[in-house]
Design a protein that fits this description.
The complex is a heterodimer. Chain A folds into two domains: 52 residues; 186 residues, no CATH class. In chain A, helix 3 packs parallel to helix 6. Chain A is built from nine helices and nine strands. Chain B is an all-alpha fold. Chain B is built from four helices and no strands. The longest helix of chain B has 15 residues. The two termini of chain B are 20 Å apart. The chains are: A alpha/beta, B mainly alpha. Chains A and B meet through helix 7 and helix 8 of A and helix 2 and helix 3 of B.
């Protein structure tokens, strides 16, 4: 799979290069070429895991989540919780183990754009635990998500995919990058907590979830709405950056976040 | 109230036509403004938009939103 993407799909290699050249700025073209092979190899391992889990169910999956108890308690505070996921490791695996929360999780998910994810959730019987919110639906699904948070439930959004929503630039891997602001906007306006979840593949069908509550210590009273949103985004980008320092080949997001003119926050 | 709560600093309330669309053209709101609008309805009027078809009609214009609030308060 890795040689196929690297050798026969130049568009895939170009898409990956946006991230790889910023994560490995000192590497030359040859070194970066071999890094790209290893990168796609890691991606292939995660895709195969997802296929296996889709067939055998989540019992085949080993997930180490040190902050599980903490997340459960945060989710049951009754003020709603935003779970911020990213295209890191096996994010579907992270979501698959969220059933322990014992609360509905409203997951913003563009089904047609994520065929593999759709099959994953359907085949593993997770659909009942998740309420899928289509970002291309009425007002991007924001009404359902706001209702869910007001009811003390959980919503989950990707922190590194905008779906056409407003974005804001923040420093990321040495340059300003445009990230979607809807997760932070939801948390700030509704008063919900916000926890970022990043998943690293530690072995065959084995994952560990690293988490950080981004709203901890945020002084909501002294910050304006826009300042609070910018601060939460800055914290997320820093958390993701530190994660990628440890696990550089785990961010499977083939998109140019650093392109000029991407910011759309007013 | 909409202008103040949604922080629409460049909008003059007097210039808003009751029939103007709230989203897209008209007042120019977007999906994130909808979050504030939903919270505003919950906070000020204890009204929740549960049915998205109902929400679509309510959020069509200032007038339809006012009608929606009125019908749920009576």
């Amino acid at each position: 799979m890795a040689p196929y993407f690297v050798l026969l799909r130049p568009s895939a290699r170009r898409s990956a290069s946006h991230y790889l050249k910023r994560r490995f700025p000192t590497r030359g073209p040859i070194s970066r070429f071999f890094t790209a092979i290893r990168y796609f190899y890691r991606f292939g391992q995660v895709l195969i895991d997802q296929g296996v889990i889709g067939i055998r169910g989540t019992n085949a999956l080993r997930v180490d989540f040190p902050a599980e108890r903490d997340l459960y308690e945060r989710a049951h505070k009754g003020r709603g919780l935003v779970l911020l996921t990213s295209h890191v490791g096996g994010w579907q695996s992270a979501m698959a183990c969220m059933r322990f929360l014992d609360l509905p999780v409203h997951f913003q998910f563009k089904r047609e754009a994520h065929t593999e994810g759709r099959h994953f959730f359907d085949l593993t019987g997770q659909s009942d635990a998740f309420r899928i919110v289509d970002p291309s639906g009425f007002l991007g699904g924001m009404v359902q998500m706001t209702n869910a948070l007001s009811a003390g439930e959980c919503v989950s959004l990707m922190g590194d995919r905008a779906w056409g929503a407003r974005t804001l630039k923040t420093p990321f891997l040495g340059q300003p990058a445009a990230f979607p602001i809807s997760p932070y906007h939801l948390a700030v306006v509704t008063g919900a907590g916000l926890v970022a979840l990043l998943t690293v593949r530690t072995g065959k069908l084995s994952y560990r979830i690293e988490s950080l509550c981004l709203t901890d210590g945020l002084d909501r009273d002294s910050l304006s709405r826009d300042e609070a949103i910018a601060e939460l985004l800055r914290r997320y980008a820093l958390f993701l950056e530190r994660f990628l320092e440890k696990h550089p080949l785990m961010w499977f997001n083939f998109f140019d976040f650093w392109a000029e003119g991407k910011e759309t926050f007013e | 109230m909409l202008v103040a709560e949604l922080k629409l600093e460049d909008v003059d309330p007097a210039a808003i036509n009751d029939e103007d669309p709230l989203f897209g053209e008209g007042l120019g709101l977007d999906s994130l403004d909808a979050v504030e609008l939903v919270v505003l309805l919950q906070k000020h009027y204890q009204i929740e938009i549960k049915d998205m078809d109902e929400g679509r009609k309510a959020f069509a214009s200032i007038k339809s939103l006012a009608d929606f609030v009125r019908s749920h308060r009576s």
